[in-house]
Amino acid sequence: MRAAVIQFPGSNCDRDMAVAIREVTGADTSMVWHRETELPAGLDLIAVPGGFSYGDYLRSGAMAARSPVMQAVVAAAGRGVPVLGVCNGFQILTEAGLLPGALMRNAGIRFVCREVKLTVENSQSMFTSRYLAGEEIIIPVAHHDGNYFADEATLDRLEGEGRVAFRYAEEVNGSARNIAGILNDAGNVLGMMPHPERMIEAVQGGSDGRRLFEGLIREIA
Amino acid sequence: MKTRIFVTLKNGVLDPQGKAIHHALEGLGFQGISDVRAGRLIEIEHEPGITTAQLEDMCRKLLANMVIENFEIEQKG
Description:
Helix content of chain B: 25-40%
Number of domains of chain A: 1
Shape of chain B: elongated
Structural class of chain A: alpha/beta
Strand order of the largest sheet of chain A: 2-1-3-4-11-10-9-6-7
Distance between the termini of chain A: 7 Å
CATH architecture of chain A: 3-Layer(aba) Sandwich
CATH topology of chain A: Rossmann fold
Order of helices and strands of chain B: EHEHE
Number of strands of chain B: 3
Oligomer: heterodimer
C-alpha cells in the first residue's frame, strides 16, 4: 500500500497524519510538497492534513486549493484514489470543489480545541467500514472554521445519499445538521473536521480514530 | 488603474463575526443597530486592459467562495 501526505506552508498535522498511516496501515508513505505538479505513482491513499495552510489567508483552505499539487489530487480523486481531508484538509477539499459546501467561522466565534463525541452515520464507506452505524466515538477537534454550511437542497442530498459520514453528538461549532464529515458522491473522498490521526493509540487518550485507517487497509488491499 | 472588489456573505448565511461586532458595538454604548455583517474589501491595481469579465473570473475562481459569498466590482478611472 502506498500513501502520500500533502504538505502546504502552514500545515501542522502532516507528520501526525503520516505516523498514523504508517503505524496503522504499514503503507509506504511519502510527503508531497504543494508545489509538486505530480503525485507519486500507484497511490492507494492521499491525505490532506490539518493546519493553517497559507496562514488561512483569504479563506481557510482557499490558497491551498489553488496550489499546483491540488490539480493532481483532484485528478487522482476523479480516478477513484481515496482522498482523506482532515480539518484544514476538509476546508481545502471544499475549496477545491471535491466536496460540496463550505466551512465557516465557528458559530461561537471561539477556536474549539477539545475531544468531542461523534456519531458514525455511514458505516458502509471505505473510510468507516470498521465502525458500526450509530456508534458513538470520541475524536478531538481543533479548529476555528468548522461550521459546515451548504444550502438545504445540498444538505438533503447528502443525507439522502448517505454521504454524511460523521455527525457531532453534541454542539461544537454550529455546523448545519451537526455535520462533522462528508463523502463525495463516489464515496472515495472523505472530509472531516475531527482528527482521527490524533486518536490511534491509548497513549493519545483513546484509539477511536484507528479504525478509520484500519478500514482503509481492508478496502484497498 | 484600481478596482475595488467587495466580498460579502450571501443573505441567509449566518455571520458569527458580524454578530460579535454587533454585540461589541452595543457594549460600547452604540444603540439603534439592527444588524452587522462583515465582509472583505480587495483592492487590485492593474492595467486598463483588464476587462470586467476577467475581474468576474478572478472573483469566481479565487476571491469569493460562491457557495457562501457574493461579490461586487467597483472600477475607478
